[in-house]
Design a protein that fits this description.
The chain is mainly alpha-helical. It contains 18 helices and no strands. It has a domain of 178 residues.
């Protein structure tokens, strides 16, 4: 008797990994994409659940769905209409493949952004594919489209860790809020600003030492506004350059209030990367 082996169904992002996003005939924007609309009650409902359990990352995606960047289609289409965008799409169909190929990145100059990126990702135990997999857990299947706009959206996702590295904001609690504010100025979804300042408010509420939390987040927002939209830059070109040269090109200066907050916490014997430790030991 012939036995048929069932083939596991691919997740949408796994299927999309086989899409040729560099194809010259790839549709610019398929019809039927949902309109970006605000749903404040939905955002608030999921935010309250996130506050109850900060590890429940399933609540984050619905907040972004409820507080979207309403001009994202216009921004994507405007960029995709340029020759420069199409050249970048041909050269960089998948940032995940580029960013996770550390062997190739390590062949670039020692002082390059590529080396700093590899050091950061390896030290933190991160990968570009890991972020895709994490977001894929909570993203509905109807949110995947095989078109150039999806390529643009993917770049918004895949440049997240580069924003951490270039801005100087770490993966500590305050650093994440600052990166959210930085990202808002790059990709103005109100969800970025909402989560960034809500997180800062929670930090300030629980603080045992007064530090410039809100000023740090606001500074992150200003830094993101001064920086050209990273998603529309050639990432391979930036990776090959010295990191300080990249920062100069992108108008990124070292964060002042964020570094000040870290110094004040450390002076008080508090680890900025483990802010809840004193409370737990009390």
């Amino acid at each position: 008797m012939n036995m048929m082996t069932a083939t596991p169904e691919l997740r949408p992002s796994q299927r999309q990994a086989h899409v040729d996003f560099a194809a010259p005939d790839l549709p610019v924007m398929l019809p039927g994409r949902p309109e970006a609309k605000y749903d404040l009650p939905k955002a608030w409902r999921h935010f309250k659940k996130l506050v109850e359990d900060k590890e429940d990352t399933a609540q984050v995606t619905p907040i972004f769905e409820a507080l979207p960047w309403r001009g994202v289609y216009d921004a994507a289409l405007s960029f995709l209409a340029t020759e420069r965008a199409q050249e970048i799409r041909r050269k960089e169909p998948s940032l995940v493949k580029i960013l996770d190929d550390h062997e190739a990145l390590r062949k670039l100059p020692k002082d390059s952004l590529a080396h700093v990126y590899c050091d950061f990702m390896e030290r933190e135990g991160l990968s570009a594919q890991g972020l895709v997999d994490e977001l894929d857990k909570n993203r509905p299947a109807h949110m995947y489209w095989d078109d150039q706009v999806t390529w643009y959206f993917n770049r918004m996702r895949d440049t997240h860790d580069l924003m951490h590295i270039l801005s100087g904001f770490g993966r500590d609690a305050l650093g994440e809020q600052c990166v959210l504010a930085f990202t808002y100025s790059q990709q103005p979804s109100p969800a970025h600003l909402f989560l960034g300042y809500a997180g800062a408010l929670e930090m300030a509420r629980r603080a045992t030492v007064k530090v410039p939390v809100f000023r740090a987040v606001r500074e992150g927002q200003k830094m993101g506004k001064a920086c050209p939209r990273l998603v529309e830059m050639s990432i391979t070109e930036l990776l090959a350059l010295p990191i300080e040269e990249v920062r100069r090109r992108l108008n990124i200066t070292a964060p002042s209030y964020y570094n000040q907050a870290h110094a004040m916490w450390r002076a008080a014997g508090i680890d900025p990367y483990d802010l809840m430790a004193p409370a737990q030991g009390a």
